[in-house]
Design goal:
The structure holds 2 protein chains of 2 kinds. Chain A is of the alpha/beta class. Chain A has 11 helices and 11 strands. Chain A folds into 2 domains: about 5-125, Response regulator (Rossmann fold); about 135-324, Heat Shock Protein 90, CATH 3.30.565.10. Chain A has an 11-stranded mixed sheet, sandwiched between helices. In chain A, strand 7 and strand 8 (about 235-240) form a beta hairpin. In chain B, helix 3 links the parallel strand 4 and strand 5. The chains are: A alpha/beta, B alpha/beta.
């Protein structure tokens, strides 16, 4: 793959992580702790990926201002899809960073096993490169035995979730982890079945439809599930054929923290972003690829551990990339 | 699939919920009207999705509005996760006891132990020690205690 990665960080742990990523991508790393100087480098050459420490928001703000000054926010030199935010703590506590124009991917700075986490992240980056809708096949390889399933009636969702749980149980995955992944799959499926379908103007058709109503999924409404497990990593991709995912709404949902504010019931629809909050706060990583008007692929990927505690505390990331 | 067993008690009703709480679960119809107080045993709840959360809150907020006293017993981890994630998930009900998840350090056996929340609070939220039934080996608490007991903090 080659190319160069730019690391904009003063944190002593970050070079080891990005070096691992570079190793997987067969790339080299250029480190520039000063965000303004980093933008100067971007003016001289293009980078395959830009890793920026957003734990200190000042650095991100300085970077944004300098990019805007030099190239304008829509310039080709800094494509959001190539920017990776590095932060301490979970993404739902990073509301300010999420609001950035450059937000596309975020990973929680690992506190241990930094090289292992970097290698995992590099593999995920490499798997997404071809943009051919085969991210989990690329990531898991043949050993992952990725299997496709098609949901043709909304009422098949529960059977599909149960099948995923059984699939994991057969793979000796701890019960609690299997139940958690089944629940995450359930949320991704509900989004694809009820939130994704839209009319010709992109307005949701089924957002307020009762979730227990069985309906046939005709044409574009069919939902594809792909899942695989290579013995170390499990991944599931749920794809709808609408591509209606709204960036602002998605990012707003991931930064809601119901620990501090009361959850208020709405009349229609499901959980007002609660499903996504659940996914993000239980363990594992999430990637969205949205091709506007064509499809949205939601991918959940996790390392499988022997117990829930390790599953929950594992290295995690979130990415949302939008293509017109 | 979900099963709900109902048993009358001296003061009202006790229900045991087992299975997944999701879109096909209608607690109002499944539990029915409550006269007196209600004890909900949640030890068999395997998971709860976002629609289930909404159903749950609608039902228990309704009970609260009617002045029904209710409490939750042996809350399994999916319920604990929601109690920790949503500040008003208990809807004013008392959480009497919870299930603590453990995994054996030797054979990876997963098991749970029931514990009164009053005992946990009295101990300063210390995780009780537990041993695996299979190997009689010491077991590890299979979660982060700080996060698992978050809803019990004052």
């Amino acid at each position: 793959m080659g190319g160069e990665l730019l690391l904009i960080s003063k944190n002593p742990d970050d070079p080891a992580f990005v070096a691992e990523v570079a190793g997987v991508l067969d790339a080299t790393v250029v480190t520039e702790p000063n965000p303004v100087q980093a933008v100067e480098l971007l003016a001289q050459k293009s980078f395959h990926g830009i890793f920026i420490d957003v734990a200190e928001l000042d650095a991100l703000k300085a970077f944004e201002m300098e990019v805007q000054k030099r190239f304008g926010l829509l310039g080709d030199q800094v494509q959001a899809a190539r920017v990776h935010f590095i932060g301490n703590g979970p993404i739902h506590e990073k509301r300010d960073a999420i609001q950035s124009f450059f937000f596309a991917a975020f990973y929680e700075r690992p506190q241990e096993n930094i090289e292992e986490a970097g290698s995992f992240y590099g593999r995920i980056m490499r798997a997404q490169e071809p943009q051919n809708g085969r991210t989990i096949e690329n990531f898991l390889g043949e050993e992952g035995g990725v299997q496709p399933l098609f949901i043709e009636r909304s009422g098949q969702k529960q059977d599909a979730v149960e099948a995923i749980r059984n699939y994991l149980a057969l793979g000796q995955v701890p019960h609690r982890v299997a139940n958690t992944i089944a629940n995450i799959s359930d949320e991704l499926l509900m989004n694809a079945l009820y939130d994704a379908p839209g009319d010709e103007f992109g307005r949701p058709i089924y957002a307020v439809t009762a979730r227990d109503a069985d309906r046939p999924l005709q044409g574009r409404e069919q939902v594809e599930i792909k899942l695989g497990f290579d013995g170390t990593f499990f991944a599931i991709a749920v794809t709808d054929q609408f591509g209606n995912l709204d960036r602002a709404r998605l990012l707003n949902h991931i930064s809601i923290n119901y620990k501090d504010t009361e959850y208020k019931l709405r009349k229609g629809g499901a959980g007002a972003g609660l499903g996504l909050a659940t996914v993000l706060q239980t363990g594992g990583s999430l990637i969205y690829h949205c091709e506007e008007g064509r499809k949205t692929e939601a991918i959940f990927v996790t390392r499988i551990f022997e117990n829930y505690r390790d599953f929950k505390s594992q290295f995690r990331f979130f990415a949302a990339r939008f293509y017109v | 699939m979900i099963t709900i067993n109902k048993q009358p008690t001296q003061n009202g009703l006790m229900v045991e919920i087992a299975g997944a709480i999701e879109e096909n679960v209608h607690l109002e119809q499944m539990i029915g009207p409550v006269k007196g107080s209600l004890v909900v045993n949640c030890s068999g709840v395997t998971r709860i999705n976002s629609v289930g959360v909404k159903t749950w809150m609608k039902y228990f907020q309704g009970l609260k509005a009617q002045g029904v006293q209710f409490k939750f017993a042996e809350c399994s981890y999916p319920i604990i996760e929601q109690l920790n994630m949503i500040s008003n998930f208990a809807c004013g009900g008392e959480v009497e006891s919870i299930l603590l998840p453990y995994s054996c350090l030797k054979c990876q056996n997963e098991f749970v132990a029931s514990c009164l929340t009053s005992d946990l609070k009295a101990s300063g939220l210390q995780v009780p020690e537990a041993r695996c039934e299979r190997t009689d080996c010491a077991a590890q608490f299979d979660d982060d205690p700080e996060e698992y007991f978050y809803f019990l903090e004052d």
